[in-house]
Amino acid sequence: MLSRVFGAGTEDGGHEQVVLCHDRSSGLKAIIAIHSTALGPALGGTRFFPYPTEEEALQDALNLSRGMSYKNALAGLDLGGGKAVIIGDPAQDKNEAVLRAYGRFVESLRGRYVTACDVGTYVQDMDVVARETSFVTGRSPEHGGAGDSSILTAFGVFQGMRASARARWGQPTLRGKRVGVAGVGKVGHYLVGHLVEDGATVVVTDVSETAVNRVRAAHPEVGVAADTAALLASGLDVYAPCALGGALTDETVGALGAAGTAIVCGAANNQLAHPGVEKDLAERGILYAPDYLVNSGGVIQVADEIEGFDFDRAKKKATRIFDTTLEIFTRAAADGIPPALAADRLAEKRMREISALRSVLLPAARRS
């Protein structure tokens, strides 16, 4: 466990801090992972999920927090990367006491970590967490917050998909293309709306029949696949994984290649199941838009809340995902490397250069 925290055998140097949180009275069990504060306080959401084991919860926290460092760096934010996971079934275990206990642990970090929504947590939950800490974003508009960050997450993924279409087919549109969306929950159903409006033929799948029915009610023209395997085999131009991580396995990439899929661009975090998948995608001629680049619209939205939220300002920032995605594709082609590696290098360059500014001594504030 400690070797994973300290980054033994990895190139990124491991994590700065990992906090194990246990409140006996409420039953809270949580992990807060701070990967990097090179650019500023670590911002990242809180995932509430029934992990089979505590080991898997820790691994998810480590992976997700590292991804947040890279996401925030590429988004141009002065924020580092962190993530928290609460172990439990949100439908049964989430209550005021658990959320407020969690908020007190966030407060104990004194601003090194700023939390927000993620899988299993919602705007209303962040309002409860905020009763114990000021280091929380993604709050409801009634409390001065940004509201549902899924809106700009989906918008950003759509911008990344438009850029991918531009790079692959010469035009920044999905009109006439067949797009498969796996997972139509908080983000996926908004993404479907953008795609339908743009003129794409959309096919969806989700383990939740309720989620599928909601999409079908809003967009009756959308097709439904029985499961992800059926979706992958259905002849997609674009595949959008929008559920949990690890979606791009060796088997998945093989199925995409066999079906002639041209682009992978989706909202899920940590899509690459293991190192090397990005090379397999490139070798099969599948253009991969790095997940932490295209799904950064949500963190752009909640980060804007720190300044005093303005939706138009946040949306304008999220629109830049289109340009950054094109830049990544250009760098990847020039260097002969997969886009995922090009994105890593650009994010690491910014973290390295900005953190080096700490060598410039600032005068201490005058004491009263």
UniProtKB/TrEMBL annotation:
Catalysed reactions, as listed in the record: L-valine + NAD(+) + H2O = 3-methyl-2-oxobutanoate + NH4(+) + NADH + H(+)
Enzyme class: oxidoreductase
Keywords carried by this UniProt record: Branched-chain amino acid catabolism, NAD, Nucleotide-binding, Oxidoreductase
GO terms under cellular component: cytoplasm
Organism domain of life: Bacteria
Binding-site positions, NAD(+): 183-188
Cellular location(s): Cytoplasm
GO molecular function, one term: nucleotide binding
CDD domains tied to this protein: NAD_bind_Leu_Phe_Val_DH
Pfam families found in the cross-reference section: ELFV_dehydrog (PF00208), ELFV_dehydrog_N (PF02812)
EC annotation from Swiss-Prot or TrEMBL: 1.4.1.23
Active-site residues, as the UniProt record annotates them: 83
GO biological processes: L-valine catabolic process
Residue ranges of every copy of the Glutamate/phenylalanine/leucine/valine/L-tryptophan dehydrogenase C-terminal domain listed in the record: 147-359
Pathway: Amino-acid degradation; L-valine degradation
Subunit details: Homodimer.
Family: Belongs to the Glu/Leu/Phe/Val dehydrogenases family.
Protein name (database record): Valine dehydrogenase
